[in-house]
Design brief:
162 residues; mainly alpha; 44% helix; DNA-binding transcriptional regulator of glucitol operon; transmembrane; transmembrane helix
């Protein structure tokens, strides 16, 4: 009976046939060996710290009961992330499905796609020219205050004479 194509995963199969380890050789590259070692070290360390907290909790430290639960949760999270990365790498890059051909009336497609991140546009700002004879009194006082603060860098705002 052939497998159901909707649920059948052929990523681990190779030309040598199903059930062989030939499809898993990519797990033994230097980068993956480092990931495996890091996972084992972290899980062992987190479980060891959890056991240490259990012994402290048994000795009367009530706060250690929470930590005794927390460290194994951290170890489980490391295993989860490692397993997810293995599955993600095993699937390989996703194939994008080509869009259906458009009609000739739709026009030509653009030559290059719009980039996802655009460079910022630098714009020089020119201060607005004040209208002749219509200067705001409060604005003029505030500008004098700011220029006094700029001229007296060590002074506090309470020292302003105006």
């Amino acid at each position: 009976m052939p497998p159901n194509p909707a649920t059948y995963d052929t990523a681990s199969e190779s030309t040598a046939g199903p059930g062989t380890l030939d499809g898993m050789k990519w797990l033994w590259t230097p980068a993956w060996i480092a990931r495996h070692v890091a996972m084992v070290v972290l899980v062992a360390g987190f479980l060891g710290l959890g056991w240490w907290q259990v012994t402290r909790a048994a000795g009367g430290n009530s706060l250690s009961f929470g930590y005794a639960i927390e460290w194994p949760v951290f170890a489980g999270f490391v295993v989860f992330v490692w397993w997810r990365e293995v599955r993600h790498a095993r699937r390989g890059p996703r194939e994008e499905h080509p869009s259906p051909p458009s009609s000739a009336a739709a026009g030509p497609e653009p030559a290059a796609a719009t980039p996802a991140v655009r460079r910022p546009v630098r714009v020089t700002r020119v201060p607005a020219a004040p209208v002749a004879g219509a200067e705001d009194g409060e604005l003029a006082d505030y500008n004098r205050y700011l220029s006094w603060l700029n001229a007296n860098p060590g002074a506090s705002p309470g020292d302003y004479p105006g």
